[in-house]
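User: My collaborator sent over this chain with a note saying "see what the structure looks like." That's all I know about it. Can you take a look?
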Amino acid sequence: MSATRITVLISGNGTNLQAIINAIEDGTIQNAEIVRVVSNRAAAKGLIRAKEAKIPTLYHNLKRFGEQNPAYQHNPDLLRQQYDGALADLVLQDQPNLLVAAGFMHILSPAFLDPLAKLGIPALNLHPALPGQFNGIDAIARAHQAFLQGNITKTGLTVHYMIAEVDAGEPLIVKELNIQPGETLEHLEQRMHTQEWLAIVEAVQLAIRNLSMAGPTVGDPHA
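Assistant: Without extra context I'll predict from the sequence alone. Here is the result:
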């Protein structure tokens, strides 16, 4: 069986990416390779992590894409669709089996998701909240504020299959995290990140297992 080819999308420090790299190197994630790391931010530290691991990288930025394609600049919706479609084309050139959005700060539209779905390529996303809670940005801060207001006692994180609706796809991994009395936002964020590194590895393992059970799909370049 050939190795599972993984593409990872990032925007920042890439600590979740590093967790996947480490897990592949130490054999926790077996028979897999990261074929490319794509960032929409040129200064993302995750790009350095990828290069240190000798993983090919790509920079694909919405603003720069608009500057290179001025016909779309005055129509934000069209610009986003064209950008997402171009991103899908770039990703598919590497013929991945699995895509992982690990801190990718851009909402992916059907223009990106549909071409992958047609080839049976699942796309995973990690969201630092429990399913159905605090969808969107600043989830940890919003959970912490809800705790201070006495509305919740715990939060958590979800790794889910991506759909067009933000942070609303089918959960693959869910981890609960009790919020401690007197806990600061910074401490909660650090505890959350530690759990993220474990969850993203578990989710990749499970997604690979699901792929192997499902077998090749119609249009799969690896069939």
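A starting point for your reply to your collaborator: The radius of gyration is 18 Å.
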